[in-house]
Structure formats: C-alpha cells, structure tokens
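Narrative of activities, Objective 1.

The group set out to show that a structural description can be obtained from nothing but a protein's sequence at a throughput compatible with the screening campaign. Below is one input-output pair from the validation batch, recorded exactly as produced.
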Amino acid sequence: MDLGIEGRWALVCAASKGLGKGCATALAKEGVNVVITARGADVLEATARELRSLGRGEVRAVAGDITTAAGRAEALAACPQVDILVNNAGGPPPGDFRDWDREAWIKAIDANMLTPIELMKATVDKMAERGWGRVVNITSGAVKAPIDVLGLSNGARSGLTGFVAGVARSNLAARGVTVNGLLPGWFDTDRVRTVAASTAKRDGVTAESIIDARKRGVPARRLGTIEEFGAACAFLCSVHAGYITGQNLLMDGGAYPGTF
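Output recorded for this entry:
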C-alpha cells in the first residue's frame, strides 16, 4: 500500500533506538524526510546511517534533550516544515510512589506530558495552515491498564491523553490535522527490559523469568517488535488515516482484557 507521504517532513523524537527508531525507519522507508532526535549522539548517528542506507528521503540527526526548550528549538530548526510529528520520550523510572518527591513528579510530567504539548504548540497551527498534518503521541498501554511500578508514567501519560482528547477534536480536525495516541504494551525494547529488571529485583526473581511471564500473559505469546510498531505509526501518518483522530491505538498482542 502506498501511504501517500513520500516527500513529507517528519520530526521523530527519541528515535535512536526502540519504538522511536521503529517509527523513524517505517517513515523513511515510505520516502519521508526525517529529523531524528535523541540524547546519545553516537547511537543516534548510527541510526541515521541505517536510515540513509535505505536510499529514500533525507535524514537529519539532532542530538539533544527534547524535554528542554533548547533541545526542542534545535530539533525544530533542523526540520524545514513539520508535516508529521511523532512525540516520544523515555519513560520515568519504575518504583514505589512513596519514594517519589515533587521533583520526580515534575520531571515525569515535563518529559511525558508537557514536552509533547510544547511540540504540538510549535507545529499544529502551521500544519493547519497547509491543510495537512499528523501527530502521533507514543504513550503506553498503561494509559488503559495502569502498571503498579510505573506510577510516574501512568500519571503523566494519562494527563497527555486527556489533553489530546480535546485538542484532536478542535478546529484542527476540520483543517486536515489528526492527533492520535499509539499505546505500546510489551515490546522487545530496552525500556521493557529495565522495567522487568526492576520488578525482578523487587520480587527476588530473574529478569528473564519476568519477561517469560509477560509473554505468557499476552495472547500472542510473545513481545512485539519495533518494526510492527513502526508500521502502525506510519499508517496513522498516512493519507489513508485522515478520518482517524482523537483515538488511542493499543498495541499489546491482545493483553488488555476489556471490550472497550
């Protein structure tokens, strides 16, 4: 299927590895020009080389912290125009809410709620002026089914989801701009393995046993791949998804037990 987005410009955050990399790769394969960001310059540049080897659109790498005003400004400056915005940031650490102080909460909210909002503020009106735009917010399956050790993420990402529910249904929708959430469950990423290690330490078991248990709890009996995640993101960014907005696509291999 031709997604109809060749030649567009995309800003993909936290794209050096994991789910962000999956999204950037899928878009680059469609001929989208991508600006990728991450804090680690070496890993980011390695990913940029991989994307350039596809021989499709232009690839620009901007090392920096997207959760800071300076990091956002530098990333936006590298993108001639943002037709597609993929918001993503590393999740806050797992733990017990009794141990988190105000600074921990503010840091989580800054990264996983306010940063996506700031990037939307900087881009969606220009998208609307051009009559086309796509925003995909990578959040978490924990928005629908909270995970006990991820309280910081549960709170911050749920706040973003509630905010986007209103914005997506504003006058942006009538001007060709869609805003959706992509909610990963258990994917084979460093983040998931970090959470598994934290849970294992708490429970006095091995991280691999936690991963195996996660797999058994998923009807698909496996972890998801970043390629699958990226393909879903690319579809939401495509011309075929223009009638999908304000939605939250849960990708969890069927793990969520609810009907809605």
